Fold this sequence. Notes:
This protein has helices at residues 119-149, 151-186, 194-208, 210-218, 226-243, 253-278, 285-295, 299-324, 338-390; strands at 9-13, 17-22, 31-34, 38-47, 50-59, 64-74, 77-84, 103-105, 329-331, 334-336. With 391 residues, the protein is an alpha+beta fold.
Amino acid sequence: MAGVYTPFVYWAQRKDKLSLKVDLRDVSDPNVQLDEYGLTFRAYGFGAKGQHEYGFQMDFFKQVDPEKSMYRTTPQGVEFMLMKQDKQWWSRLVEQEKRPGFLKVDFDKWRDEGDSESEAEEEKAKRLEAYRQESLKKFEEEMKEEMESRAAIKYLKTWWLFAYNFFQFMGYSFIFVSCVIRYMMYHRDSFKDTWEFTGQMMITCQLMAFLEYVHAEVGLVNSKPIFPLIQTLGRNFILFMVIYPEELMYPLPVVTYLFTTWSCIEVVRYPFYMFNLIGKENLPAKIYKVMQWLRYSIWIPLYPLGFLLEAYCIFTAVPYYERSEKFSYQMGKYRLHYPLLMKLYLMMLAAAGTLLLKYMVRQRRRKAAVKRGKERERAAQERAAAHQHID
């Protein structure tokens, strides 16, 4: 974060929750992005470096429940109450073993597993705990009022996202099934009618895909807006600026292969989003695991294949646009040569494709790291149970 200072963050834990306090005064409308794996914070306020923009990003040691977690802004800072998904003590707050310099322990709220106190200190601790419980109760009441005021919005948000994902899933399923079934029935003869059967549906689905950028931009989903925007703009350029204007492209095999590849990706992605909205606890574990594996694995062959087909589609279309001179204009001494712009777009496609692939690799590694962490934790619990049995 160039030009952004990092504030001090004080944390403490209990068995079922975490408390964080960002030491930043006079904060209004902080930008907070919280999901089960981490927290991103950015705001203007008065901190250790004076009145500046402050921010930080942290990946949690284990998962939290963002739906049950809350935060509020006070004159002294921004306070978070994060509910753990599993009620157990954490050995550290962040994923990395070395604690960041801005992260401090809130000793006033800290409790360790198995704490013991003398009788003299126990009474003092009880009084302090009563005060903390009263403060926590007041904090929870304030958060409850705020959560209740947003309950209707959250309900509408969930159903809107579910309806959107369901619509996209049905649209891309129609495209995928049409391309596959017709190829199985007519083989190469099916290519000439692909656009007639699926073109309108592909146009509808790709126009609707712009809503994914809107969802991320307004905060309906926990995602960076840049990545859905890159993917949507890239596909729509191929669809609306390469294939749709030139009818000679419609019967080519590359159009069928491209539509099949795009739709194959989406018939896995959108059901996974619907499952997350329903809640994995409400679904059979095996089905959810299969869908999660497909979501973070099927892109490995299909994304590079899709980029190659998009590039081949442009190479194929260039001679047609050179002959027809569509979108090419003469402006005085200067000429806008559209086939040249199409060739230049190939460099943008390579850069955008690299960004998307790196993003998907990071997402897959994060999921794998969480899975390995759970496996290590389960193995440790089994070893502890075996030692107790021996004793």
